[in-house]
Amino acid sequence: MKVFEMKLKVYLLKDIETKKLLAREAGFIDSALAKESKWLDYHEENQFKNYCFNGCYPLEKEGVYKKDKIYTITIRTVDAKLAKYFYEVLKDHHNPFIKGLTIEGRILPQKRIHEIYSLTPVIQKSDEGYWRNQMSLDAFEKHLFENAVKKYKQYTGENLNEDFQLYTDFHFLNRSPIPNEYKEICLLGDKVSLKISDEEQAQKMAYFLLGTGICELNSRGFGYCNYRWK
C-alpha cells in the first residue's frame, strides 16, 4: 500500500468564505473528474472514494480566502490510478472559483506513526444531525473505528482481524463544533487527535487513513489528517 500526496498550487478567481471553502474545493475536483467518463462514473458511484484533501494554505484568519491570491491544496489518495489522473489533470483545470497552476507529487514514507490529527473537521453522518445531540462518546469512537475498517477492507480485500487497538489516546482539538456548508446545509464537525498503537495492524490502518481521511465525507474535504512520526 502506498499513500500518494499531491501539492496543488491554485489561483482563486473569486473570494471564498472559510465556511464554504471545502465545498468549493470539492466542486473543483468533482468538475475535473467529470472531464472523463470513467472518472465521472467513479465520482457518481456510491462507494468510498479513497481520497481526501485539506483546505487552502496559507490560512486566512479574516474568514475569506481572497480572489487573485495563490494557495496550496494538499490531496492524498491510496489509489495509484486516481493519483495519476489528478497529477495530469488538476494543474490545467479550472472552474468559476479555482484555477490550477502547478502540482508536485510524492509518496508518503512508511514510518512508525505516533499520532494522526485532523486538519479539517471530522463528520459523523446522522439523520438526527450533530452527533453530540444523539450519540455517546463511546458510540462516536466505535463508529470511527468501524468506518476505518470498512474502508480498509473494501480497498485491500483483506479478511481483517478486527481485534486490535487502533489508538491508545483520543481527544478533541476544538472547544465548540466547527460549522461547514455542504449542499446548502450547515454540517457541524470536530477536530480530533489519535495516538496510534504500536500494533502492526494499527500502524497499517493509520497509514491508510492518511490517504483516505477518517470518518465520512472525505471526498468533500472532511477528516483530512496530518501526522507525527515516532
The chain-level mean pLDDT equals 94
Total count of strands: 12
Sheet having the most strands = 4 strands, antiparallel
Classify the beta-strand content into a percent band.
Answer: 25-35%
- Give the low-pLDDT segments: none
Spatial strand sequence of the major β-sheet: 3-5-1-6
Describe the structure.
With 230 residues, the protein is α+β, with helices and mostly antiparallel strands. It is 28% helix and 29% strand. It contains 5 helices and 12 strands. It has helices spanning 21-33, 37-44, 80-89, 137-156, 200-212, and strands at residues 4-12, 16-17, 51-53, 64-65, 70-77, 98-107, 113-118, 167-172, 178-182, 185-189, 192-196, 225-229. The strands form 4 sheets. A 4-stranded antiparallel β-sheet has the order 3-5-1-6. Strands 8-11-7-12 form a 4-stranded antiparallel β-sheet, with helices on one face. The chain has a two-stranded antiparallel sheet with strand order 2-4. α4 (137-156) crosses α5 (200-212). The longest helix has 20 residues, at 137-156. It starts with a strand and ends with a strand.
